[in-house]
User: Which sequence fits this backbone?
């Protein structure tokens, strides 16, 4: 079915039509400085295509939540766990519900993690649910940055990987990426290069104008035109709109953003007693208790979101039948523990990356027929860290060990295993593990890195490291009230030697 939507007026007064089916196959990149009309363009695209295709809008500023009032989009608040967002995204594809992922109020790293989990859930949906979806990502430079910023490397890699999957591999899964950015220079090249359609708006920097002209196949002398474009005017190129650069003016929209551009309003006449109005009641206000704003309403519970999604499901569509028999949670946990023990019994497991171990773990789970949803990567990392610190049942059930597990959650996933190995020695009164053991648990051959980790724990106030008169190391845990027995920091890694034999 050939469906074209009206985006506004092209040069000469003709309607600027966009082939929606071609857009789903070729993707779209929008560029323009702040205030050039990118959000207006995306809103026009969403409103015009709403009757024809499912939408998923990644909205970092909460500008597109108003689509819910007129077009029935479901608003998903990003203030929830990554596992919840992944599950919601899978249900969205299954039930074909248009949504707006509202990331307003989250810091940049949280926004990147939430978007990565949500896009990953849509990308990993079952093949039976690969229906066409228009995935619109506003301010795409946040989620696919060209260079490292103030966020962690893990968050950047997760978000960049999800965006790369959307733009490069999403087409076969029915996902059509529409990304908007303020500057092409801020956007990762491997993400921008996958788009075949372009809408270039107003920009001022020479490098951005030159790059926009190159993408549109224009002469560099014509690049100056991007500086003179009015708000809401763009130059289009691509199989979905025009085979040659085509100036267009985006048409009006029916909904509006909650935030608008500031408007000038005249100042009121200055009162004669301005000083009295400003300063007279300061002392009285100081004595009064401060007026607290009411807390914002809590986000909609995930269970309610999933219930709303389930209502959209056609009654004639059969529920998917599980391939595995029902099993209680205790048996599932036992199977997961067994698979984890088998994984760690491999002598080389300590020196393999978490990503490789995770893939090996998933394969072993499928071989063992472990029922239920596969563990997400964050949950696997946590389980891996706990499994490396082997403790008996009595120790595992003790309050001291449970408190040690709680303390480890203050640290990043990659160092929790080292912390728990040392904590296990302290709780059981065993000698402090040597540097070689700590290095193996950390996944490196460098004992210097292992020693630096102990210094890092000490800087965080979690441990106190000291050396006795014989040169042996003792690590104390002030919050737990326990410490390790003296241990030789230069001693051999006994477990690795036994595995090698």
Assistant:
């Amino acid at each position: 079915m050939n469906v074209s939507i009206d985006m506004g007026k092209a040069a000469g007064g003709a309607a600027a039509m966009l082939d929606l089916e071609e857009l789903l196959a070729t993707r779209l990149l929008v560029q323009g400085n702040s205030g050039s009309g990118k959000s207006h363009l995306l809103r026009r695209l969403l409103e015009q295509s709403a009757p024809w295709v499912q939408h998923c809008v990644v909205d970092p500023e909460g500008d597109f939540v108003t689509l819910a009032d007129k077009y029935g989009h479901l608003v998903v608040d990003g203030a929830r766990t990554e596992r919840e967002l992944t599950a919601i995204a899978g249900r969205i594809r299954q039930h074909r519900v248009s949504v707006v992922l509202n990331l307003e109020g989250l810091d940049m790293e949280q926004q990147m993690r939430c978007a990565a989990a949500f896009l990953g859930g849509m990308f990993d949906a079952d093949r039976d649910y690969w229906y066409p979806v228009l995935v619109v990502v506003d301010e795409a430079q946040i989620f696919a940055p060209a260079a490292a910023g103030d966020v962690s490397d893990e968050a950047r890699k997760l978000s960049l990987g999800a965006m790369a999957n959307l733009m490069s591999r999403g087409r076969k899964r029915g996902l059509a990426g529409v990304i908007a950015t303020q500057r092409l220079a801020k956007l990762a090249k491997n993400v921008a290069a996958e788009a075949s359609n372009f809408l270039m708006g107003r920009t001022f920097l020479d490098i951005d104008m030159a790059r926009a002209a190159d993408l549109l196949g224009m002469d560099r002398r014509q690049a100056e035109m991007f500086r003179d474009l009015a708000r809401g005017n763009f130059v289009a190129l691509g199989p979905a709109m025009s085979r040659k650069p085509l100036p267009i003016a985006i048409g009006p929209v029916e909904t509006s953003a909650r935030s608008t551009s500031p408007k000038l309003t005249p100042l009121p006449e200055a009162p004669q007693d301005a000083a009295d109005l400003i300063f007279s009641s300061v002392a009285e206000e100081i004595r009064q208790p401060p007026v607290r704003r009411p807390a914002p309403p809590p986000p909609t519970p995930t269970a309610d979101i999933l219930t709303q999604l389930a209502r959209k499901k056609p009654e004639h569509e059969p529920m998917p039948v599980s391939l595995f028999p029902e099993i209680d949670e205790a048996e599932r946990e036992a199977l997961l523990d067994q698979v984890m023990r088998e994984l760690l019994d491999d002598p080389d497991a300590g020196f393999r990356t978490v990503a490789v171990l995770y893939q090996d773990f998933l394969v072993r789970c499928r071989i063992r027929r472990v029922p239920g949803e596969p563990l997400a990567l964050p949950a696997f990392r946590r389980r891996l860290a706990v499994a490396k610190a082997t403790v008996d049942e009595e120790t595992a059930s003790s309050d001291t060990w449970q408190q040690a597990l709680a303390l480890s959650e203050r640290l990043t996933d990659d160092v929790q295993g080292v912390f728990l190995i040392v904590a296990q020695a302290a709780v059981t009164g065993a000698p402090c593990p040597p540097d070689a053991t700590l290095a193996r648990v950390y996944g490196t051959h460098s004992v210097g890195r292992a020693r630096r980790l102990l210094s890092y724990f000490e800087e965080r106030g979690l441990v106190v490291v000291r050396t006795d008169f014989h040169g042996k190391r003792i690590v104390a845990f002030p919050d737990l009230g326990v410490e390790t027995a003296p241990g030789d920091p230069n001693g051999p890694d006994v477990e690795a030697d036994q595995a090698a034999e």
